[in-house]
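Sample intake — Programmed cell death protein 4
Collected from: Himantopus himantopus
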Amino acid sequence: ELENLSDVPFSGDEENGGSEERKTEINGNWIPATSITEAKINAKAKRRLRKNSSRDSGRGDSVSENGETLKIGVVVPTSPKGKLLDRRSRSGKGRGLPKKGGAGGKGVWGTPGQVYDVEEVDIKDPNYDDDQENCVYETVVLPLDERAFEKTLTPIIQEYFEHGDTNEVSEMLKGLNLGEMKYSVPVLAVSLALEGKASHREMTSKLISDLCGTVVSKTDVEKSFDRLLKELPELVLDSPKAPQV
């Protein structure tokens, strides 16, 4: 029968040059030849894509589904990690600008030039205290000890020898808490004047006179000269003419 079929003349459709699409039987199913060709082309393209991706994996690159090369370490904006760093709106609206001009986050200073109003005290606050409204805060200046006293007043007196303004010295001494060291002001001034010029000794005399009654009392001045007389043997070591002066 097969030999007889080979001698049978072609039908009208076959004479037309194969106008109908040829079909191939695969696993009992007739599939058009064009579908098989497309499947082969797609399979060949996938193999080439996998080959390129495995070749580029050693260089730190990867190939996406669209065939685009991606660098490892670059976060794709569509990934969840990229969305965390994305400042655009989740709803797709907006221009990606920070909220409230950058002054809407927690712990920020606010926009430049912004002036905050005085916060009103809430009476219903559990931590509210009636006495806190009548509190008067003052700056407490600790009294100077002997070492800090000499270190602080020495440059003040030396500058006085340059400008000669007793009022400036008086204002500076009033800003200090001299405490029990008030009587040491004339002692230090005379000790520095003994090491200086005759003009410095004259300026020191004027300074003690102007400070008496404002910064130091007469009792403090008397106590200071008593101490100078007791320390005279030590003063002679630095100023041999200290007794006569």
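Post-analysis note: The chain has a mean pLDDT of 75.
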